[in-house]
Amino acid sequence: MAATAQINSPFGVLETLLNSGSVDRAITYSNELLKSNGANPEFLVLRGRCFYLNGCTEMARKHFMEALRQDPDYSKAKDFVKLLRSLERAKEEGNKAFTSGNTVEAIECYTLALSLDPNNKQYNAVILANRAAAYMRQNEYIKALQDLNVSISYTPDYIKAYMRRANVYMQMENYERALKDYNFVKEKDPSYPEIENSIRLAHLEIKKSKRKDYYKILGVDSSASEAQIKKAYRKKALKWHPDKQNGTQEERDHAEKMFKDIGEAYGVLSDPQQKRRYDMGMDLEENEGCDPSEMFNMFFGGDPFTSSRNFNFRTRFA
């Protein structure tokens, strides 16, 4: 009977709301109890927990400290003050390590902070987003994505987590999902820093991803020099030249397509103006008259597979 009465008491109802995760309702209910219980240590701790679970750490601290002022020996208030100090110390040390470039230590500190109170989802959402940033610096994009997904599940309107997740998706070349997150951020905060530029970049990458990747075809980076592009073309063109194929018809057809794509890639990337337009994601003029064999002959000064003066081409280009 006594236990039932305690559960049904105002403080019991408040604690039940907190334990069930109904933080907003708990805050509203605590407001109703404040006037008649403002000096009660038990109530002050419960109300402090409301703010603590809502991410308002400073307000929570004030309530816990006031509870201790009313009753210096109240153990629950002491425990929460100690917990707050531990959380803040772990977070601050993590932020300091991250700022100094020590991502390993930052991750360790953030992981410790997460272990201190797994039930504080509002607080942990921030820590998870911070740890994700550290993982991103290590190019650990899968781990960063996992942290950000959990962070967003804890706080569905946490804009920074969405922005950071979009940046992870960009690094993972998942441009459609990145754009979706960027658009969410813009919808929630149109003035969010760099959001317009990020959306433009995502659109550009989506457009570029739907066309042939000339750099990939030649096997070079986008920062490749003119000499590296020429070298890559020479190697690929010799490998996939149709006259060098003796396999099945299917294999010869594949080689012919590869040879054509290689010539097309070199035709664009070897032309500074065309390359610049390609890198900017602009549409390129169709060059239907370009014959990959003709380009090959021009590059080598004659077809090495048929020209007697290039009989020893294998030695020359080995």
Please provide a brief summary of the model:
With 318 residues, the protein is mainly alpha-helical. It contains 18 helices and no strands.
Structural commentary:
The chain has helices spanning about 1-10, 10-20, 25-35, 40-55, 55-70, 75-100, 105-115, 120-135, 140-155, 160-170, 175-190, 195-210, 215-220, 225-240, 250-270, 270-280, 290-300, 315. With about 325 residues, it is mostly helical. It has 3 domains: about 1-75, Serine Threonine Protein Phosphatase 5, Tetratricopeptide repeat (Alpha Horseshoe), CATH 1.25.40.10; about 95-210, Serine Threonine Protein Phosphatase 5, Tetratricopeptide repeat (Alpha Horseshoe); about 215-315, DnaJ domain (Helix Hairpins). α10 (about 160-170) runs antiparallel to α11, α11 (about 175-190) packs antiparallel against α12 (about 195-210) and α15 packs across α17 (about 290-300). The chain is elongated and about 95 Å long.
Structure keywords:
single chain; 318 residues; mainly alpha; Serine Threonine Protein Phosphatase 5, Tetratricopeptide repeat; Helix Hairpins; 3 domains; disordered C terminus
